[in-house]
Specification:
The structure is a homotrimer. In chain A, 8% of the residues lie in helices and 66% in strands. Chain A is mainly β. Chain A has a single domain, classed as 60s Ribosomal Protein L30, Chain: A, CATH 3.30.1330. In chain A, a hairpin with a 2-residue loop joins strand 1 (2-6) and strand 2. The first copy, chain A, is flat, with a radius of gyration of 15 Å. Chains in contact: A-B, A-C, B-C. The interface between A and B is large, with 42 and 32 residues.
Chain lengths: 143, 143, 143
């Protein structure tokens, strides 16, 4: 991983073998990023994606391997009880050019990944919500 | 819906049952946003997406239900004759992890949606274009 | 193509028949953009997309025609030896609403395309990397 900061934006290069989720978490800790919008493209050779089953509140996951283009990576980095909390979704394409994806659990870089973290000057908290079974974004000071 | 403004960016949380299109329109009216770039992720339980048939200039639409991850939401908010005008495209994944989508007509939040509106300091107008049959972006003062 | 600059952001409208890749390259040359994040939506009537086969380091490409929505366009504009270098990935949907895509080689606008170029105030270089067979992003002054 290498990156450079340009104002409120970090341009990040991830290298072969690095996990996207772990790398971005580490970057947020090291650079003390508390709130950021994450996006990017690249190529993976392994990914674990999830679907949240809204009725049962359970995550289903599936793993894919092979040469895959990241055609869309989107989400955000917040904090939950002080710890970095990532919420990332991903769309990939494979040798058939068909697109697939979901909630990003793990994604190993196969060639390179080029991410942008746009830092927001402030904070948002995550709190567990019983109704949805998810850790939702909240804003301090709100009821 | 709850949101917080960080400089030129609004981080928005939509809640179960809310329609993305209507919510973003309302937010643009309330916060007097005239031009913004929209992006986000989340999870829907209903969506209506469209394809614009360029030859016949007709929109085809299709509805999908069930647990769906928003793996990409992208577009913009402009104004047309003073009214908020949204142009949003969406990519979703379902229990098969296959991706699908199109022009976003309606999208009901199933769990949560986390959007970012990035306000541009200026305006762009929409005007009907006979050649394409679409309301295209234009810039005031241009010929 | 018409565009307007709002601070560090360019909102760009491409018109029927224009190629996305060529148009963005030309814009970067004309506006002297050295580093930018690119995103957008729109509709194409022809696209050539690629997959980078990580094992053999070869690009496979496939062409698609017909009415297609751009549901996600993402990437960046850098420079390589002074020349504009685009790295763009794309997700599209067609009349079946299924999503597909990959590395964007060429994309002819069928109706309109609405892009955003976000200029980063600085530079990043591309350099050929023998290990991956790709032109990777680097940051001047790094080892």
């Amino acid at each position: 991983m290498d990156y450079r900061r340009f104002g409120a934006k970090l341009l990040v290069r991830l290298d072969r073998g690095e996990d996207i989720v772990e790398s971005v978490k580490r970057l947020c800790r090291e650079a003390d990023i508390r709130l950021a919008v994450v996006s990017g493209i690249g190529a993976l050779d392994y990914v674990s994606v999830g679907l949240f089953e809204q009725g049962t509140k359970q995550y289903h996951t599936k793993e894919f391997s092979g040469s895959m283009e990241i055609t869309g990576l989107a989400g955000n980095a917040t904090r939950m009880k002080g710890e970095v909390y990532l919420h990332l979704h991903i769309v990939l394409t494979d040798a058939s050019y068909a697109a697939f994806g979901g909630h990003l659990n793990k994604g190993r870089v196969g060639a390179t990944a080029e991410l942008v973290l746009e830092i927001l000057d402030g904070e948002a908290e995550r709190e567990y919500d019983e109704v949805t079974g998810l850790n939702l974004i909240g804003f301090a000071g709100d009821e």
